[in-house]
Amino acid sequence: MMITALIIVIAIIALIWTAIELKRFKHKIFAIFLVALIILAYVSFAIVFKDQKINWKDPADLKVAGGLYLSWLGAIGGNLKLITSHAIQMDWNPDNDSNSDGKTKDKEK
């Protein structure tokens, strides 16, 4: 009887500890996601505006910068759409054997 109660108490303690750690882990994952998003935004801005002469205090230049960045994001979306459409059209069978010119050849059994 005493051992059963001890096992139940240990299980309850383990559940409480696991719940607290999962909650803390969820916050850590969210923080890592935000840091990665900020780094990605910084790198993308650096790439897009690397060769551009933009005066960040001039509203007209800010409008141009916004258009450049949004067109860059649109191009990324178009590229992802193109890659996805090509990936869908590929033959993903495990027994697919392609030669270098992209034509499939029959496997000899």
Order of helices and strands: HH
Report the count of strand segments.
Answer: 0
Radius of gyration: 27 Å
Helix content estimate: over 70%
Shape: flat
* Tally of structural domains: 2
Give the averaged pLDDT, no decimals. 84
Q: Which band does the percent of strand residues land in?
A: under 5%
N- and C-termini, Cα separation:
66 Å
User: Which class of secondary structure composition applies to the elements?
Assistant: mainly alpha
The total of helices stands at 2
Low-confidence runs (pLDDT<50, min 5 residues)?
none
Largest sheet: none
Key structural traits:
single chain, 109 residues, mainly alpha, 2 helices, 72% helix
Provide a compact summary of the structure:
The protein has 109 residues and is mainly alpha-helical. The protein contains two helices and no strands.
How does this structure look, described?
By secondary structure, the chain is mostly helical. It has two domains: 38 residues; 42 residues. Helix content is 72%, strand content 0%. The model has no long low-confidence stretch (mean pLDDT 84).
